[in-house]
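Technical annex, item 7. During the second reporting period the consortium partners agreed on a shared format for inverse folding records so that results from different sites could be compared directly. Each record opens with the tokenized structure and is followed by the designed sequence. A conforming record, contributed by the partner at site C, is shown below for reference.
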């Protein structure tokens, strides 16, 4: 019905002209004292022809609208199927659509090329920088003193930031190498714990984890990245006490006794680049760690959320139930 009224509005000038011509014709016939029955008969014939023509026009209008709507829904793939124009203005609009489509495709090709070049560059850069990092770590392993341990910890941070840069560029790319299948959650957690254990020992922070026997549907590499980021944040903002990891009812929980997050900052901690009061105060936050965790969890169909109290600590929950995978 809405489409019908749009058609009536579109043809309003035609209907007005028809009414004006009818009234003019009736006035002329009256001036010449023509039989009124003949005038009415002619008017009825014209009305029947006009209504029939309007109905046929509406059917063509509806078909054309359906075709255009179908093209609109699949615009990048159906510009060559535009209906033939009825007049010169429609022909010009069709040419504009095709030209804009070509410009858009060229821009997309250029942007995808730049994005791929950036991905390739960061991939090579990360792999290249890992070589001197590994060499320095081997050199420092032969020395046992406080300075070497400090340097080792800083090298670990450099390696972590390099890996974060690689994951960031991969998340922004159009292709993500997701491998969704059943994994042992204990194996994933243990990998993250082994990697961060030296940092916990150096900071004299207790790490609590009770092994669990459960399988989850996820991507091992990306979930490991999330767990490592959560451990990195926990140890970064915890100066004494402990960090505990637990898993139950398909929810992974990372709890620390650190400085906590204010109630004003808590709703925004997963935003890109947001550091909050704690990050600005400590000058250690990039505002990317939790953002990347949120993005990865979204792609894996998981949910992540937090609770925190200033001065008491923070709890990060990762619901590993898959709701809906985010494929690009």
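Designed sequence (site C submission):
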């Amino acid at each position: 019905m809405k489409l019908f009224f749009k058609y009536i509005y579109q043809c309003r000038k035609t209907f007005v002209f028809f009414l004006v011509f009818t009234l003019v014709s009736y006035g002329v016939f009256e001036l010449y004292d023509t039989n009124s029955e003949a005038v009415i008969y002619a008017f009825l014939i014209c009305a029947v022809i006009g209504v029939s023509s309007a109905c046929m026009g509406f059917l063509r209008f509806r078909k054309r609208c359906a075709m255009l709507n179908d093209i609109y829904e699949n615009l990048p793939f159906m510009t060559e199927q535009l209906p033939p124009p009825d007049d010169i203005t429609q022909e010009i609009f069709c040419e504009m659509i095709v030209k804009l489509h070509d410009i858009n495709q060229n821009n997309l090709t250029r942007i995808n090329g730049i994005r791929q070049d950036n991905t390739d560059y960061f991939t090579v850069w990360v792999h290249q920088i890992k070589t001197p990092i590994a060499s320095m770590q081997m050199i420092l392993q032969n020395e046992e003193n406080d300075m070497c341990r400090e340097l080792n910890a800083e090298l670990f941070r450099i390696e972590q930031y390099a890996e974060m840069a690689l994951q960031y560029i991969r998340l922004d790319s159009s292709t993500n190498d997701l491998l969704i299948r059943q994994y042992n959650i204990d194996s994933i957690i243990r990998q993250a714990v082994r990697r961060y254990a030296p940092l916990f020992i150096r900071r004299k922070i207790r790490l609590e984890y009770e092994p669990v026997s459960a399988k989850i549907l996820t991507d091992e590499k990306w979930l490991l990245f999330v767990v490592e980021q959560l451990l990195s944040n926990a140890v970064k903002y915890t100066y004494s006490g402990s960090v505990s990891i637990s898993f139950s009812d398909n929810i992974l929980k990372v709890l620390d006794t650190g400085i906590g997050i204010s109630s004003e900052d808590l709703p925004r901690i997963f935003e890109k680049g947001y550091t909050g009061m704690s990050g600005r105060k400590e000058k250690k936050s990039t505002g990317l760690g939790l953002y990347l965790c949120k993005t990865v969890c979204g792609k894996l169909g998981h949910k992540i959320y937090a609770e925190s109290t200033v001065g008491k600590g923070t709890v990060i929950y990762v619901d590993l139930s898959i709701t809906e995978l985010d494929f690009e």
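The mean pLDDT is 82. DSSP finds ten helices and seven strands in the chain. All partners now use this format for quarterly exchanges.
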